[in-house]
Amino acid sequence: MANVFNRGKFIALSFDMDAIDIRATLISDAYSFDVDDNFVVDLGTGAPDRLGTDYTILSEAIVEDDTNDIAYVDCADPVWSAVAGGATVHGCVMHKFVTNDSDSDVICFVDVTNTATNGGDITINIAALGFLQLT
Questions:
Q1: Considering its fold, how many domains does the chain have in total?
Q2: Measured CA angle at 17 (ends 68, 58), to 5 deg
Q3: Whole-model pTM above 0.85?
């Protein structure tokens, strides 16, 4: 196996952020993560698996971190407003939106502590080292 330089990790993650529409889909505890899911449609077509509307990710950045020997993609914490009560948030799925759920590629699942919805806002706190990492 090859040893990958931090710059190689950074290059592997580098893509034109302005040309790609990255969105987040809020996911309920009814969804079970499946590494073989490829498109947003694989997550379910709405409640109970998906909650609210997709959130367009803001302030994306690709970072090379030599101290921690990783490269990562970071963004502002997504916030969904007034999420209907009666569900439990399990996380969100970051995806590359193309034209619809059938051709929008899933990127990663951001797992959070299950949180009951009550009609208020839901914020997914993205880790300090981003939502996608190459180590």
A1: 1
A2: 85
A3: yes
